[in-house]
Batch of 2 targets.
Target 1
Amino acid sequence: MAHASYPLTTEQPYPRRQWWAAATATEVSRNLVARDILGERVLLYRKEDGTAVAVSGICPHRAFPLEKGRLVGDSVQCGYHGFTFGPDGACQRVPSQNGVPQHATLRRYPVVERGGVVWIWTGEESAADPALLPDLAAIGLDAPGWTVEIHPVATVEARYTLLIENLLDLSHVTFIHATTIPSGEKVAALPVTVEARSGGLTVARKAVGIPPNPLIKAQFPDQDALVDQEFDAQYMGPCLIRTGGTISDHASGKALGTQNFIHMITPAAPGRLHYFVATARDFGHDNPALGAMNLAMGTRIQPEDVDAISAIETVLRGDAPLPREVSARVDNGALQVRRLLEAQIRAEALAA
Amino acid sequence: MAHASYPLTTEQPYPRRQWWAAATATEVSRNLVARDILGERVLLYRKEDGTAVAVSGICPHRAFPLEKGRLVGDSVQCGYHGFTFGPDGACQRVPSQNGVPQHATLRRYPVVERGGVVWIWTGEESAADPALLPDLAAIGLDAPGWTVEIHPVATVEARYTLLIENLLDLSHVTFIHATTIPSGEKVAALPVTVEARSGGLTVARKAVGIPPNPLIKAQFPDQDALVDQEFDAQYMGPCLIRTGGTISDHASGKALGTQNFIHMITPAAPGRLHYFVATARDFGHDNPALGAMNLAMGTRIQPEDVDAISAIETVLRGDAPLPREVSARVDNGALQVRRLLEAQIRAEALAA
Amino acid sequence: MAHASYPLTTEQPYPRRQWWAAATATEVSRNLVARDILGERVLLYRKEDGTAVAVSGICPHRAFPLEKGRLVGDSVQCGYHGFTFGPDGACQRVPSQNGVPQHATLRRYPVVERGGVVWIWTGEESAADPALLPDLAAIGLDAPGWTVEIHPVATVEARYTLLIENLLDLSHVTFIHATTIPSGEKVAALPVTVEARSGGLTVARKAVGIPPNPLIKAQFPDQDALVDQEFDAQYMGPCLIRTGGTISDHASGKALGTQNFIHMITPAAPGRLHYFVATARDFGHDNPALGAMNLAMGTRIQPEDVDAISAIETVLRGDAPLPREVSARVDNGALQVRRLLEAQIRAEALAA
């Protein structure tokens, strides 16, 4: 891979002292499931009381992948020679002997289940503070008064930073999503502001005084007058970007409602990512057609982004020489996020 | 490949001064066949008198794979420009000229055909001593009084040591083969003895005083009383492990018969192996149903082991960090075999 | 890839100050097409006036592959964020702003369209002299009095030098094409002369006084007497080799006509090539069956060569140790061409 860390200039491709979306809540069950996260193999399951568990997915006895084993109560039994580990990672039983070998332990990942998502902490266990999660309540993912849809996860052959860059430059909407996002063809021409907020950053666009398009009509059937529509891209950390925003009546400035698209990004490996999407709105709670519409839009829009960043990943992995990168003024926000991310990774390296 | 030589600590992954099963007797014919062995491309065929021949499979003229050529009498004619080589590897003819170039020679591998298997020697030709073959007569593969079945070969994406380790820790039978090996679910709990024998090593288990299961009933229809059953794993060198053993009447101790499973393991490349199996028994010679049963068991059991070691190979080749290896007391035999194998490889390096 | 530059002893696998066939004329249209050439991604299209254009196929903004964009007039618009580049490679427009960033330029490749083929120059633009193209008129590709067929391109997983070597040692015809090239079975036995000509080299064979085979009868229906047939292999540079030659009446020496096979070879990447073939004859212009016959022969013969060189590429990429190369006397021409090619590559390295 010729351009292994592009667009970052750091050696380590991702921060580890970080919460990441590991799975949607419905993916984690009494069936063992393995997922690569930050290049590690993580085993996910639920205890009999429903609590989600995340431990290392490789048996320390003979490196057998543990998802091929089975659950015995709250413990995982390896499918090869039967080594059995509790949800705390400690070896509880070796079938061929009494007692267990020293050091026969699985790494345990701290878990928080919130907003329909199972989050794991990939740094040292002692530093795992749920307060370091992005403020999910503020964006409607874990708050009263919001209706949420959790979309199915996509695993993509692309470094996670390509998805962060994608979401932070919404001028791509005009080209990639011209036919799938209503009024998308106009986004590239909107003026942009960049605002740093609480360790994060928002790239904001606003369409002002536009006639309500069919999607807005579906969301707010009584609105015939002109509206203002926000096209935010809010970086809340490497694990989460919010897009969307508030739609308001143009004349009065009164908010009609807020529709957020919550993009949860998890590095699977240096060149692969998991992409979780949730949609959250603070209006139309009794209208299930809006949720169905959001899910249907997701199945049309998400593949367009996946295709784009996979195509770039293929270019980056190839041996063809790359042109010297140029940026537009509109890339200012994305470039600031690159520096935030690099600073986070470098701070970890210094602390280690 | 992050863990290229695991579980060995040597650089060279396999010994070369060694006989290896190259093919079953029926695979070698008047049609050219190429097989990768120890990372080399070996061409196998029979002379007109039936003698098996093994030579290098790459033409020294322009690196064309010789199995795409054809046999002319006892010689191989390259399919590209017609360079022709005798069974001793010497170039005999170049169609475009009189005489042959110097050094136009194929490497020749010493061959012994024994027990329904074509064995080749991968060390220096002068050291190729058939006496260095494992004692095939002792295990029923090349001896009067035994009935033998030769199973079809499997080529597996796994380093050959994973298969050696698999066979030497039969506690896996309880988990991998619980439903396919009669009484297999009890193997992990049997006590184990380890006995060094003539440069090899036997990990022995014995089920004592068990009722004859359906397989034993099929093998010894007159036996209704309790039996003792051996579950040996006998390492006879890196190329061959015998499992199985003798079934005896529990009360009298009288042997009813011996059923051996003969596992012939040949490294194809650092991460790939050929797996040859033969079954040999010294009873029931006039009962062809027993042979059919052995072959049918093979088609069910062998894929379970192949799946297990391929899954480990995938883990080893991945970039995920591996946990520090732990072993059970029952692994003692397998760990001794690792050291035997490493010593064999190191001795070669010193002698070279 | 263990033998990355075989059979060359240079580090750089190909010369760059060179014209190469990039596409047949019919492949280049108002649809964007990308092709890997010398490890670079080249974008090909036609302007509205029909002129062929070749520019770099990777957007310098965010490395998006430009063939996924679209043509706007004579310009290419990137499919991701809409950066738009003219046929001279200069950035003309960035949708989100007025003006364009500095250095936002695509590399432009000089193009000549000749003989039904679009040729590009991969060296510095200032050195791109159409006079450095092989003399296409001399071999009937771009000359009055010749009838030409352009065959469909094949992209082959093999280093381009393997195809050069293949074409320069036509003794392979006897083995690879014995059934598809009339009288091919006799080629290996014909005496060979090697003649250096104008920076190139011709390996010549002539079948003398042979009865006209069915192909010759189809080409020259009135010829019943014995003929002489040339089997030339003329290296005119790394991009082009001519095979075939003149067929004459044996008794009088009078030429009946010339049938050339024009092989245009373009490195795609270190281990991959594009193979363009044209057939040209100076007789039978009013007999379309001869053109159809040439195209049909191509679809049978070309895959035989592709299979052969792909098989060698697989051997070269493998980890198996290669035998020390030996050559026949008939390889003299091919060995001289290796040295010509190495000298061309080394001269570039010295000049750089």
Note: Helices of chain A lie at 160-168, 173-176, 214-219, 288-317, 332-351.
Target 2
Amino acid sequence: MTPLRINLEANDIPTHWYNIVADMPNAPLPPLGRDGKPVTPDAMSAIFPGPILEQEMSAQRWIPIPQEVRQIYAQWRPSPLCRALRLEQSLGTPAKIFYKYEGVSPAGSHKPNSAVPQAYYNKLAGTKRLTTETGAGQWGSSIAYAGQMFGLPVRVYMVKVSYQQKPFRRSMMQTWGAEVFASPTDRTQAGRTALAADPESPGSLGLAISEAVEEAAADPGVCYTLGSVLNHVLLHQTVIGLEAKKQLEKVGLYPDVIIGPCGGGSSFGGIAFPFLSDKIAGDKRAEKLRCVAVEPTSCPTLTKGAYAYDFGDVSGYTPIMKMYTLGHDFMPPGIHAGGLRYHGDSPLVSQLVHEKLLEALAVPQVATFAAGVDFARAEGIIPAPESCHAIRAVIDEALRCKATGEPKTILFNLTGHGHFDMGSFDRYLSGQLEDYEYPVEAIRASLKHLPQVG
Amino acid sequence: MTPLRINLEANDIPTHWYNIVADMPNAPLPPLGRDGKPVTPDAMSAIFPGPILEQEMSAQRWIPIPQEVRQIYAQWRPSPLCRALRLEQSLGTPAKIFYKYEGVSPAGSHKPNSAVPQAYYNKLAGTKRLTTETGAGQWGSSIAYAGQMFGLPVRVYMVKVSYQQKPFRRSMMQTWGAEVFASPTDRTQAGRTALAADPESPGSLGLAISEAVEEAAADPGVCYTLGSVLNHVLLHQTVIGLEAKKQLEKVGLYPDVIIGPCGGGSSFGGIAFPFLSDKIAGDKRAEKLRCVAVEPTSCPTLTKGAYAYDFGDVSGYTPIMKMYTLGHDFMPPGIHAGGLRYHGDSPLVSQLVHEKLLEALAVPQVATFAAGVDFARAEGIIPAPESCHAIRAVIDEALRCKATGEPKTILFNLTGHGHFDMGSFDRYLSGQLEDYEYPVEAIRASLKHLPQVG
């Protein structure tokens, strides 16, 4: 019988996270404060606990994963690496397609890989409560779960329109004991200001961030958590790539191409960095390795954004970071159904794309969902819309292999399942989805608002 | 590190299903036709293919699992056996609690264990299309998935009120390529009759069954599929218990108590029978083994029903089967949120309960969801409402162990995840659920309509 899943045992859960900062050809550019100088850990200590800030700034190659975190990881890790044999057969490709399936986590995505250590380090540092923002709820539900695992109360500011339209992710967070507020609330100054301006405000991710940060900054016992973009989040996600490497080794393979969806960049860094390090180190196997970040044409950060210093949030509260950005006041169009809506991208991923060690690709929405449905019908798993972006690129790559006859090994990141996104599949299946290419002029306009540096 | 998951490899997927019929102290009573005589395979061949009918009637102990089925099973099987260590700790019980987690299947429950072989045998027998009915959609989505795996078109008659209120299970079926109709339809005589009587009819499971059976009976190329109750469905589900046995052996344990939710009985038979056979065979390890089927107090088939011949469907189209039943015109109350709504139960499970080889227990709704939330908060997995019934009984058993100090090994069937049932959790969390004990007088009344035998 062809083995379709390559499993590892609990003891194979990585003992260390891999920090690409140690191996980057050029040191990453630091985030800057309002004074144009690199921000100090002190400046961020009001909202993040010490161990998280240490990891954020660290250049140490291997960072130990605490036993308490590995014990929680063991609930679903090592996640399976699966051979997409039926998809290969349906495409008639000589390529071997493998997917690392992160949808097996309790929250259904890769997000708990970072939510669990973030909750752990906060507990360790004496944090009394966590805050965060969430849009559709994937990160919110992960931190609700992780907080519960360490007995840490969690408050989630959920964009009001999602709170009303996606009640099931909210129920999931509440089942795990989190308090969920429809943002804007009257609990914070930011929320009250927004409500004064528009009592019917549907909210926005930027506003929800402001509320969560404001609560954390105002109370020494409260810390803020973030689900992507920052170095420590990418660090935590490297368990994906480290396990995948071990699993491919079990069947004597090494990837020719690694493909992952990319929004804030954490799952992409997570799967790519442990392999990219081989390429940087001159490992023969990785000589021709390509790592491809896939994003939507309606939010084309890496492919059409500027590589520049910009704020991490819409309101300009955060330090500025050097990254690919569409401008911090960029708003993805309403017709976009597939996640990956962040205006910027992880500074680490951005710099490595800029230095041509990583590639980026944008795919249109309708073809993305079509790929997701093809995958579901071949492999049985209904992928998250985010993951569908990678699948589109994987199928295209496999079809190129069919044309050239190359038996490439393709590894991709199936970051989550689509159980809470069936509404988007419904819109696709009933022909209601459209493609949208974000206009270059609009990007040029929003890039005019980039902050001045130095 | 305490191993929380006991995994098996693809080669450990069982090679044979276990048929309890071979080992029952008394041969099972046959289903009877309208003439009061045992039904022949011929009488059912209009709606079921030959290999399925053979399995339905078989007394052979071990029935080989075709390689093609094992290959599809390998997508998610062997399913993990997990130690509920955090739940044990939160209860302070000396009991060891293990759960077999069937929510890892593509459709999120144990149902594909039977949907896959049913689709396979239909394909083999030359069936051109499958029909079935579905309420909330758990079975419908499983057969949609399984049909897709073998290139077999599937038509699902979905109870109209569920079709309208639970669109996401419908989208899931459509994503897997199935046609889904809101029942009653104007496609069948049964549907047209219902619509003539009430154009706004919300539909019922009984009516949807009639439509699916009618389409299958009218067209030689079309066969009908059923997700529980019948012998062949229980047979297929024994992969659950066979794997669990091997997994417990890996850690040197044998269960003292096996607990599972029970509606039509297929998942319960699936986990219990491979262990019950040891008890029947006089195996020392199984001497004190208890197998407990858990049902809702609002649909208390095994605990308050009569052990009698009754129809399998509401309309009285099917052969009559000897089983625990509340009467085929029983309707579970509208306030019931937790599944397991069938008026009868598997004839095999019923007979073994009647012969005191299996036990049954009914649990009230609010305490059932409370147990589900306790489990979610301890273990991270949000259980299907059906599975919550087992969890209620498990927690009660573990608390008894705490009182007596007995370090029992408890095995339970976590039959699925609750991702498509968050609406019910929402109702629980917001205090809208109530308990409901089905009144004895009402059961007495519906039992008056049992068919006359002989």
Note: The mean pLDDT of chain B is 94.
